[in-house]
Amino acid sequence: MLHHAAVAPLYPWAGKPSAYDMIVLRTGQDGKLKSQALPDDDEYADKPERREALRQQGLEAIGPIRAIEDEGVAKELTRLLARLSRDRNVRNRRAAYLALMREESLDAISPALQALHKLPGLNAGNLYEEALWMARHSVHRNVVKFGLALLSQYGSERHRELTFTLGKHEEFTLYAASALMSMEQSNKSLCELARCIDGWGRIYLVERLDPETQEIRDWLLREGFRNRIGDGLLAYTCALKGDLEEALQADAIDPSLYEGAGGILAALIAGGPAEDIDDYEQAMPVIGEYLRHAERMCADAARLAPVRAIEGFLEQDERVWEKRYANGWTPEARMAYLAMCRSIAGAAASVGRAADERTMRT
């Protein structure tokens, strides 16, 4: 019986749209991606654990997700990329592309980049052109990722649009962010990209955003914490970076800040894998300020959810509260806030009953 070894395709990037083209095609008028489909979905299924591992590494050093780096793979990639940089022909491009398609290539990104910096005879200009080609024309996600990792070594504005567009797909967000961080006004770009996505990609970016402008801080408190994975993953980060305490100290606030503050507090109270309300040192004054605004702005029962969450938090077991008293809370503040919650809920219920009566009369 004959066994036929799998034959590598002549040009693996041929015959399908590139990842970039597919992302552009599926981006709506609001700038957000409408589908997470990629051209290699039929032959590649990314491992869920990779996303979590990459999340914990940091944008500055895209690297291996295993403790032991495969130096053999890194050396092979370095050799192929160096050869490609010296002679940009289709044969060399194919050899590098096939190597980068393999799953283990992602584990070798960091050592390969370090080795390329030290390699004599490397043509950095040609390598940049090939990195652009990989990011722009590759069908396979691993090759796109490696292209973005290479682009992160160059601070050129030339690839800003390409990088930003690829970053809208959460498969590439971390890699695109690393490339964007090597450019001018990188923080602004990261914030703009975070506005376009709502999953793990947003979490990666918000965790690394520098709240250097009021515009960024305003967005963090109103929308930045919201994501489809779970608002609790970013609630604490956004409360601190957006300075929720200072924002709520204003005499009056706009409805979007009121809604955002309520969402952040409700998420912190709900808890989860990230920091919760007991980790938030400003919880006592912030809850007080929020309830002050709620007395004026919580006009109906439909907007009561955060107030109810705060009420439930304040009514928790006394043994839990003993620890909170030791960490800065006071019984007086707790009782005062609890009375405010009940008053707000009662007023909202009265408004609702009055509205129902008017409806019945008509």
Q: Estimate the global geometry from the Cα principal axes.
A: elongated
Q: Rg to the nearest angstrom?
A: 26 Å
Q: Alpha-carbon distance between the termini?
A: 85 Å
Q: Helix/strand/pairing class, anyone? A: mainly alpha
Q: What portion of the residues fall into strands of 2 or more residues?
A: under 5%
Helix content: 55-70%
Q: Give the topology string: H per helix, E per strand.
A: HHHHHHHHHHHHHHHHHHHH
For the largest beta-sheet, the strand count, sense and barrel status come to: none
Describe the protein.
By secondary structure, the protein is mainly α. It is 62% helix and 0% strand. It contains 20 helices and no strands. The protein has helices at 19-25, 48-55, 71-86, 90-101, 104-107, 109-118, 124-137, 141-151, 160-167, 173-180, 186-196, 200-208, 214-224, 232-241, 244-248, 255-270, 283-297, 305-314, 318-326, 331-361. Helix 3 (71-86) packs across helix 6 (109-118) and helix 11 (186-196) runs antiparallel to helix 12 (200-208). Residues 1-5, 48-69 and 354-360 have low confidence and may be disordered.
Task: Chart the SSEs and their pairings.
Elements: H1 19-25, H2 48-55, H3 71-86, H4 90-101, H5 104-107, H6 109-118, H7 124-137, H8 141-151, H9 160-167, H10 173-180, H11 186-196, H12 200-208, H13 214-224, H14 232-241, H15 244-248, H16 255-270, H17 283-297, H18 305-314, H19 318-326, H20 331-361
